[in-house]
Write a structure and sequence with these properties.
Layout lengths: L5 H9 L1 E11 L9 H19 L4 H8 L2 H6 L1 H5 L4 E6 L4 E6 L6 E7 L6 H6 L3 E6 L4 E6 L4 E4 L8 H5 L9 E3 L13 E3 L5 H23 L6 E5 L1 H10 L5 E7 L7 H27 L8 E2 L2 H9 L3 E7 L5 E5 L4 E5 L7 E2 H11 L3 E5 L10 E5 L2
Helix pairs in contact: 2-3, 8-9, 11-12
């Protein structure tokens, strides 16, 4: 199953090509309805072929461009392993699809950029966070949201205390013993001993283990500002906190041994601990915005927001959920044309503003229209 990651989202935002096709569609997890997706995708591809030809492409060229979809349409296993929504992206060099945990209306867009706005509830609104599931025998790292979880393969961290000790001072002559617990198929926790090892030495070994973990996680977390939740037994988590250098370590932890739990189980336990972080961030952003109203630092018209986002001026952008506005942005003249209905060559202007705001380091919040500052469908705070 292909799950959307933050890196995937950044790649999609940055992609610019002569032809970028974005398809979103409702899918079903089980039952006869799972086969409807195949038919609806064929219909969307017929629509895509028609649009390509209207824009001047010959039918054989259009069919060649859309050829990567043929395997998906014929793949029975693909349609039997869906979630609630499917997003597919095609360009000259990219053919990616993602199974997502929320529904979409069927939607097709062809332009010079991928259409990413429908992904924002997953990437932004649902709140991303990480979980470090920690025990002496196993280490797992998960990227999560409210409705999804993905285990991350980490090659630069020790995955057990035994592995960490391979890099320890060989003079300590540590040995590992793993014994089966009577009457079970589970291994007992690894016991390390050397000459005269005591409780302090054991803690030092675990602290060294945790510092190696913390150091290895920096490649993943160095540019992140999202919560990291710890799961493990109490004494181990206390030592990890001593080793931690990540600024956004969550205060709340999930107690207990995670070794027998699935990623979905761990995500379900973790979400209630971090949900308030994301509501808090939204409220703090709205509070921060408030005093700037009437100072010339805020704008709310799409014709002003799109150029400002391209110029890197937008610090905060609030957008009402579900809104669309079609038109064109002339970069050379720094002007926006707004169209009541989508026309050939148009972009979805809210999507442009979102993409450029994020790429230039700004923050975007998708909220209910009633909460948009100063009324309207959007509001932006400028850096200058």
């Amino acid at each position: 199953m292909s799950l959307l990651s933050q890196d995937d989202f950044k790649m999609l935002m940055k992609t610019s090509d002569q032809l970028c096709l974005s398809i979103y569609m409702r899918t079903y997890r089980a039952g006869k309805a799972t086969q409807q997706g195949r038919i609806r995708l064929k219909n969307l591809l017929q629509e895509a072929e028609k649009k390509l030809m209207q824009d001047g492409m010959r039918r054989p060229e259009a069919q060649l461009f859309l050829a990567p979809f043929e395997e998906l349409i014929l793949n029975n296993q693909f349609w039997q392993n869906q979630r609630d929504g499917l997003a597919i992206f095609l360009s000259k060099d990219i053919f990616n699809y993602y199974f997502l945990p929320f529904e979409f209306d069927d939607f097709l867009f062809i332009g010079q950029h991928f259409h990413v706005k429908p992904l924002l509830p997953f990437i932004l609104g649902d709140g991303r966070f990480y979980v470090l599931a920690l025990s002496q025998n196993a280490v797992r790292v998960f990227e999560c949201s409210r409705a999804n979880v993905r285990e991350i393969e980490m090659k630069n961290i020790p995955h057990s205390l035994a592995e960490a000790m391979q890099y320890d001072d060989p003079q300590r002559q540590l040995q590992q013993h793993s014994n089966m617990l009577p009457g079970t198929n589970s291994k007992a926790a690894a016991v390390f001993h050397g000459q005269g090892i005591g409780p302090d030495d054991q803690k030092n070994n675990i602290l060294r283990f945790c510092r190696l973990l913390d150091h290895g996680l920096q490649d993943l977390l160095h540019s992140e500002k999202v919560p990291l939740v710890l799961m493990g037994v109490e004494f181990l988590l206390a030592i990890y906190k001593e080793a931690n250098t990540y600024a956004y370590l969550a205060a709340e932890v999930i107690p207990g041994n995670p070794e027998e739990l699935s990623g979905e189980d761990i995500q379900t336990l973790a979400w209630p601990l971090v949900e308030h972080y994301f509501h808090k961030a939204e409220q703090e952003a709205l509070t921060y915005y408030g005093p700037f109203q009437g100072t010339g630092r805020t704008i709310k018209e799409i014709a002003d927001v799109v150029p400002a986002s391209y110029n890197g001026q937008v610090e905060l952008l609030f957008l009402a959920d579900g809104e669309q506005q079609w038109g064109l942005y002339d970069f050379a003249q720094n002007k926006v044309q707004i169209h009541a209905q989508p026309e050939s060559g148009d972009d979805e202007l809210y999507d442009l503003a979102i993409r450029q705001t994020i790429l230039n380091g700004g923050s975007v919040y998708i909220i209910d229209q009633i909460n948009i500052p100063e009324g309207g469908n959007m509001a932006a705070l400028l850096r200058y």
